[in-house]
Amino acid sequence: MKLHPVLAAVTQRIRERSAPTRSAYLARITAAAQRDRGADRMGCANVAHAFAGISPSDKFKVVAEHAPNIGIINAYNDMLSAHAPYARYPDIIKDEARQHGANAQVAGGVPAMCDGVTQGTAGMELSLFSRDTIALATAVGLSHDVFDATLMLGICDKIVPGLLIGALHFGHLPTVFVPGGPMPSGLSNNEKAKVREKAAQGLVGRAELLEAEEKAYHTQGTCTFYGTANSNQMLMEAMGLHVPGAAFIQPQTGLREQLTRESVRTALSILKTRRYAPIGQIVDERCIVNAMAALLATGGSTNHLIHWVAVARSAGMVIDWDDFDRLSSVVPLLARVYPNGSADVNQFQAAGGPGYVIRELLDAGLMHEDVLTVREGGLREYTRRPEGEGGALRWSDIGASRDEAVVRPARQAFSPTGGLKLLTGNLGRSVIKVSAVPDDRHVIEAPARIFDSQDDLQAAFKAGELERDLVCVVRWQGPRANGMPELHKLTPPLAVLQGKGFRVALVTDGRMSGASGKVPAAIHVTPEAAAGGPLAKLRDGDIVRLDATAGTLEAKVDAGEWATREPARLSDVQAANNSHGVGRELFAGMRHNALPAEEGACTWL
Question: Dihydroxy-acid/6-phosphogluconate dehydratase C-terminal domain spans which residues (predicted)?
């Protein structure tokens, strides 16, 4: 299938824009790849230290027989249900490596926080910056520089982007990402959302709410809604960095272990066949565009408009929100997974999953097929379903959609566009995810009510002050102000107001991610208020127009007055509240150095 002209144009735009930085990046990783192996290059004391902790036979293989040595970066902890299964993965990986004459070592662990635990608390203000902390920890682990390939064990929100950023700074190494899979379905996401809305109205108490939440989040595995964690897995498939079809196989299955073992064989096959497929070469402008297309086609998390900008920068490429917007205009919505539908990720997998979406996009000319992947067969391998519970691992054709209420062919898409819009105007640049927003709510014009924190909005809702048409503006939520927390706690009250018939919207320089849902929300507004952005000029009662159809976000204020209006300032009390407690003082440097959201909120550049 001929490549769609818009996809080709966006790819070429990225290629041309990134030529100097990408060329320099490729030169660095090529030079690194041409060095002797670490065990041959380093001094004897260095080598002795590197392998002192492994068995004599494994040491002999690596040092004397030049056997491949795989570095494992593990995001294991049992605070995250999705990451708890990783406790036993290193032993599985080491066993498989030995069976193939290789060695594997845990090069390092990285932090992995659960946004579900910290949601609405001060801890969430560390969440975005945990991505760069994970990248730094990945670099520390790999800095021992004795590895021939790496396996990245991580799933959830900031963890995969952090691992990917870190891995790309060691772009000369073949790298395979190893997922763990979703938990079995519990209480449906729709039912859980209904209980949350009732709790917001005071119709049910804490006991009923806790019971519902525990039925939804009930065992090991990722949460089953299509938020950032599961969007990560979709994108890893589309980028060719997984074993094909590994994303949504549940942790409790025998197939899950087989796929983990196959990740070892996949990494070793790159080395043994001498196929030049290091991660820095795989992740090029075509690979990045493929990830963007997959995100749009599935209505994935808006967090990736920040994360994938940072990922691209790590591989010497520059992308922006215009690229996402242009792709969204031609990439159809092929999946309805909560919050963009009622299905969860297990139903998505059963209906056809990532393989179905990738096949449809390839056949429609909406993904690049001529790309490198960790598999010799290329991206077409990612259109097949893994099988082999209790037997040999094999792959079969995805076939037709098993549920067209969940996934559909490109010619019968749920929507002709990806449901993501760039908004521009005198309030700055922002994005809105409209794939779950009712058509009659794509344009909201109403008086603004200004809040300086999400707690202030919650208090106003409980006091009955928001029972009208309005645009809720929550500012001082950007990277430099307080680390850009997600504001999911605002979804239930705003959904309640919308359910009562009021025309409401949210405008914020904070994040909402993959669970923004049915309320129109202009998010990631940049420049942020704390950096002198225009949200700081807004006042209560100003008319704000959010127009997702036209792609605009405007304060309907006289231009002369707007130009001379003095912006509000973050108060000393607010700044102090954002700076201390649960370790936030340690992240002051990151807040100070953070780039704007559209530049990836990177803290290392």
Answer: 406-601
d(CA 471, CA 556) in angstroms, rounded, equals 12
For 29-74, what is each residue's pLDDT tens digit? 999 999 999 999 999 999 999 999 999 999 999 999 999 999 999 9
- Based on the structure, what is the number of domains in the chain? 2
Residue 287 annotated as binding site: no
Instruction: Please check whether residues 488 and 582 belong to one and the same domain.
Output: yes
DSSP assignment letter at 551: T
Q: 122 lies in which domain range?
A: 8-184+219-397
pLDDT at 324 over 90: yes
Is residue 391 packed enough to be buried (19+ CB in 10 Å), middle (13-18) or exposed (0-12)? exposed
Cα–Cα distance, 175 to 160 (Å, whole number): 13
Domain final residue pick, 397, 430, 454: 397
Between the two ends of the chain, the Cα-to-Cα distance in Å is 39
Task: Please tell me whether residues 376 and 487 are part of one structural domain.
Answer: no
Burial tier of 349 (Cβ tally within 10 Å: 0-12, 13-18, 19+): buried
156 appears as a binding residue in the annotation: yes
Please report the pLDDT score of residue 516 as a whole number.
59
- Chain mean position to CA 491: 20
Q: How confident is the model at residue 577 (pLDDT cuts 50, 70, 90)?
A: confident
What is the band of 515 on the pLDDT scale with cuts at 50, 70, 90?
low
The Cβ of residue 12 has, within 10 Å, a number of other Cβ atoms equal to 11
Write down the pLDDT at residue 571.
Answer: 78
